[in-house]
Design brief:
- The structure holds two protein chains of two kinds.
- Chain A is an alpha/beta fold.
- Chain A is built from eight helices and eleven strands.
- Chain A has a single domain, classed as Rossmann fold, CATH 3.40.50.
- Chain A has a nine-stranded mixed sheet, sandwiched between helices. Chain A has a two-stranded antiparallel ribbon with strand order 4-5.
- In chain A, α1 packs across α5.
- Chain B is of the alpha/beta class.
- In chain B, strands 1-3-6-7-2-8-11-9 form an eight-stranded mixed sheet, with helices on both faces. Chain B has a two-stranded antiparallel ribbon with strand order 4-5.
- The longest helix of chain B is centred in the C-terminal third of the chain and has 20 residues.
- Chain B is globular and about 55 Å long.
- Chain B starts with 6 loop residues before the first strand and ends with a helix.
- The chains are: A alpha/beta, B alpha/beta.
- At the A-B interface, β4 and β5 of A face α2, β9, α3, β10 and α4 of B.
Amino acid sequence: MGIRIYNKPELEDPVLIASWPGIGNIGIIAVDTLRGMVRAEEFGEIEPWDFFYPKKVSIINGELKDLEFPSNKFYWAKAGEKDLIFFIGEEQPAEGGKAYAEGTKAYQMANLVLDVALDCGCRRVYTSGAAVAPIHHTARPKVWAVPSSQELLDEIDRYENTVLMSDIAGRGGQGNITGLNGLLLGVAKRRGLDATCIMGEIPIYLQAFPLPYPKASRSVLEVLTQILGIEIEMQGIDAIVERSEREIKRLYDRFPPEIREELDKLRYITHIKETEPEPITEEDKKRILEDIDKFFKRGSKED
Amino acid sequence: MSQKHPFKVYEKPELPSSSLVVGWNEDAGKLGSKVIDYLYRNLGCIEFAEIEPADFFPLTGVSVKDDVAQFPESRFYYCPQNNLVILKSDPPKAEWHRFLCSILDVAEQYCHAKELYTIGGMVSISAHTTPRELLAIANSPQMKRVLSQYDLAGDFNYETPPGQRPTPSSFLIWLAKERNMAGASLWVPVPCYLISTEDPQAWRKAIEFLDIRFSLGIDFEDLDENVAKQNEKIAGVRVSLPEVDNFIRKLESNLVLTPEENEKLIKEMDEFLRERD
């Protein structure tokens, strides 16, 4: 089980930004977009054999030419004043048919990622994923942020469009972040690094569809660039968001009218604690969310 | 995770050089396991090693199949007269890389294996009356040259389609290639309606190749009897169930069945052949 570093970069106080696929691929789209925009260069990888089953075989004229494994690569870039390390995992090392990594393999992978980051002098880590929320797809997704320590809370408060778990009604600051996007946060905390997981909101009714949700990735990207103090062009991701919006509208239009009617009520309610009264009563809000939850037979969760 | 060898070797076979033949349980038409069972029975093979299941299978209880409790097995046998090593194994559910490396470790370290063959069945939308062919995928140009001396289909291109994964056999011969061990995966197309039962014609095809390749001197009489019995059973189904006969006729005429027809053919044939067994 090993790490291969081809060309170790000389970095000053770099920040690690890591992501794996998850619900709506929100985190990985955001992180990969940022990686592309800052033209990050590949400098290493985690050997895949012990974590993954191969994903593709190529046979040419009856001869096995190649066996491809999911990639787990490190990149680096200088963006403005900041040195950045990216880690992008093509798959989570899930076992026994589970969708998200857990257990020994996941813990080993999280530690390997941090081994490289620490070796490069990194002291700060960001991971990114999805927050399943009772929102409508026409709303601008907020970004939930979960830091590894109390000291980071004030910093998060400064970033526009972010919310903490305690800002979300009915949560009391509690929650779970499943899979490696969450686990890395915990392992980073354990190893004494400052870490924050930032999660873009995805409507509760879209979580089960195998569709990316780049609208939330854009929100994550906005927060990430604020955090890093860099500016990037958003045209590329905006075009992807536009295509995705059309696809989601087509899907939404195919829902039965009575479901659409119920889901449309999500336009008028908010799950974030408000100081001003909402245009809808708390009782109505509770009932709407229960009806939607019953329909999709799922609770709100994060990845 | 234990880092010691996950295998147990009971006896060290004295083989100056050998070839390893691997058959997986859970194979189409039970091809891999039947071929290995046949070699074991007919070549006087001796069990000498096994891979311990604890690291590779979720040992949360036992599964029951056809009324019988199952337990994962990965057993090695050697055939002293033929310098042949055979492995019959369940495909692991975890730690694939370590498991497959253990197979190669046993073969190389204890049997001086120089080459590896995997035997497997592949789903074919064809009738059982279509003669079986043997497809070979080599792991090197040298192995491809060796295989070109035999009656094998070996000039095709393939890429794993999206949403699917490579087979354990491809993974194993790729690992063998990494160790400079010659390897090939051998595949016999099995008619779709025999996948969950048995296809003795497919076993015969694979054993024919092994017989020639390793000069095993196999008497095919019992295999031919199995083939004849199976054909008789299928003929019985065709008489009893005209709709099934019609589906098979369509396949024999290279016509395509609808998904519903295909499903019905598989279901009816499966039920009928199991009843007769």
